[in-house]
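Support reply, case 0932

Customer input (verbatim):
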Amino acid sequence: MALSDRFILFLGISTVLATGASQGQDAPAVIDIGSAEAPIVSSTVVPIPMEIFCALDKFGSHDWGRMVDDRVVEAGPDRGHTALLFGLVISQGFVAVQAEDKQEVMRLGQSVQRLAKLLGVGDAVDGRLKIISESLRDGSWDAVKQEFDRTRQTVLDTMAGMRDRELTTLVALGGWLGGTEVVAEILSADYSAEASDLLNQTGLLGQLIADFQQLPESIRQAELFAEVGTTLAKCQTLMVADASGHISQLNVQEIHRAANALTEAIYSN
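Our regenerated output:
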């Protein structure tokens, strides 16, 4: 479970707003783990969707409103499934914030609250969600971004304090999946070789796979979680630069299809 000492992480995906991005500074497209203040859960550097979204905007404007996912959020049949769903919903929250969609942020905030209670961490997020609601009424999007960041990190910190490594790993995986699906969808429709580097996550994928494989076999062999393992392995082979030094458009499209299929499975189970 040891984290590689130094590798370049293209943060495509997961689930936390970086301090610089929340203060309006330019978000770097490439982040060095050795110097970044990226949050670490278990031994995994957690992906940061808002950072990747800000970096993606440097390659052109995007219709974030079109990316908002209005799927109905139902509780999973077990806590592991709910943890995956929680990560996905948080990542969608960041998309809604990026789109400045008040109604969708409120709806997803309610889903976050409901799922957090099912995971036993509801009390830890109630205060954060209240601030989000107040900030939305005031139209303070910077505050909304900061509190979404803090809400997610509060849940991860609380789970870590409970020594619940399994749920922490699955929340991180859900966040990574949600962010990956969004970025890959955007790049599939509007491909840029330079922007494709944001999906170059071989180091991160290796660590996520290692964390996933540390889960009990009884969890990994369940149908949905077996699909998680298969998708992680597939994305690891696709998130590799070709001879040109970039990820091909075909690979980006395959990444989107794989991430979308798994997202659909998590929502529908």
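We compared this against your earlier run and they match. Two observations from our side: Residues 8-268 form one domain. The chain has twelve helices and four strands. Please reopen the case if you see a mismatch on your end.
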